[in-house]
Specification:
By secondary structure, the chain is of the alpha+beta class. Helices cover 26% and strands 36% of the residues.
Length: 352
């Protein structure tokens, strides 16, 4: 659906967006994630033909999107949804059919289908500007999809919703796009939101696309410290591969040595990434068969998502995630001596 090459865009602010290559398949749900100021919305505006590019090539649906004569037709094949719902002072129904009117098309039952899909049929004749925030978002989504677009661009569409409202809308949106085979590009800072919807993720920072891949790839094999940090890898240790046997690397870090399955070679300087949920904690040595086990002391215990995060001093700092049940059953608290373990396959090495 989208092919972009050698894009370079310099904004008056001095910010530079530079994307060497990006492809998004038809029917794919692609999420662009990254911190504030990464260039996510700027890239989305380029894909939506709202921002001129300084250099590069852009194809959408096999057509050159940078040729002015093709732009109107391409824009008609897509919808763009902004972070805040922009509704006119009219009924919900009239808001939904507005893009059909712009195109000179009649409502052939599509509006009713969107009302039902987004569960707002009962609001059909209500004034759109008198709705709750969640209802306004649903109306905006119904309007975005009523034209049956091939491409939908979403810019932080759920940022103003509470967690419960967000989950419900994300579930409805996911069902609709997969059933219709719609290509969706979603911009968000919310990693969990992206993981709930996306088939493929792209992590951006400083105007560059750092890594593109499936959720599991980015979780388990981040290409850089920046990607690891954004994907929630909270233990990142500097080290050096001291020895290698087959694909098992011995890695020296300050305060200890680890064993990690990796393609890195002896002598390479690396970063060792370990996710909190990959670390097991016990009160006794030798529990389990994991290659990496370290005696340490809990320095902090704090709520983390639906679990608890333990900071453990093993000569180096290691973070572990445990359930509340495990925390209570083992009586884990700051000051306790524990054994922290993780598999050689659970860690990932990044070459420095």
């Amino acid at each position: 659906m989208i092919k972009l090459k050698n894009l370079e865009l310099r904004l008056p602010s001095g910010f530079v967006l530079r994307i060497d290559s990006l492809e998004i398949g038809e029917g794919e749900m692609f999420a662009i994630i990254g911190p504030n100021g990464a260039g996510k919305t700027t890239l989305l505006n380029v894909l939506g033909l709202l921002q001129e590019t300084g250099a590069g090539a852009l194809e959408i649906a096999g057509r050159n999107a940078l040729v002015p004569s093709d732009r109107t037709a391409l824009r008609r094949s897509m919808s763009y949804l902004f972070s805040r719902p922009c509704l006119v002072n009219d009924t919900v129904y009239n808001n939904i059919i507005l893009p059909l009117k712009f195109r000179g098309e009649k409502d052939d039952g599509r509006a009713a289908g969107m009302l039902e899909t987004f569960r707002i049929t009962g609001l059909r004749d209500c004034n759109a500007n008198q709705l709750s925030q969640g209802e306004r978002h649903r109306v905006s989504l119904a309007r975005a999809f009523v034209t049956r677009p091939r491409l939908v661009l979403l810019d932080e569409p759920f940022s103003s919703l509470d967690a419960r409202g967000k989950e419900a809308i994300i579930a409805d949106l996911g069902r609709l796009t997969r059933a219709a085979g719609t290509t969706v590009v979603l911009v968000t800072q919310d990693r969990e939101e992206a993981l709930s919807l996306a088939d493929v993720l792209g992590v951006m920072k400083g105007g560059r696309l750092l890594q593109r891949g499936g959720p599991q790839e980015l979780f388990s094999r981040p290409a850089s410290a920046e990607v690891a940090d954004f994907m929630g890898v909270e233990t990142v240790l500097s080290g050096e591969v001291s020895a290698k046997s087959d694909n098992l690397c011995s890695v020296s870090v300050a305060g200890g040595a680890l064993e990690v399955v990796s393609a890195c070679e002896a002598g390479e300087k690396v970063l060792v990434c370990v996710r909190p949920e990959a670390v097991s904690v016990s009160k006794a040595a030798g529990a389990g068969s994991m290659r990496n086990q370290f005696k340490g002391r809990i320095t902090a215990a704090e709520p983390w998502r639906l679990e608890y995060r333990l900071s453990i001093d093993c000569g180096f700092s290691l973070l572990a995630a445990v359930t509340r049940r495990s925390l209570d059953e083992l009586g884990l608290k700051p000051g306790d001596e524990v054994y922290a373990s993780f598999k050689a396959t659970a860690a990932h090495l990044i070459r420095r």
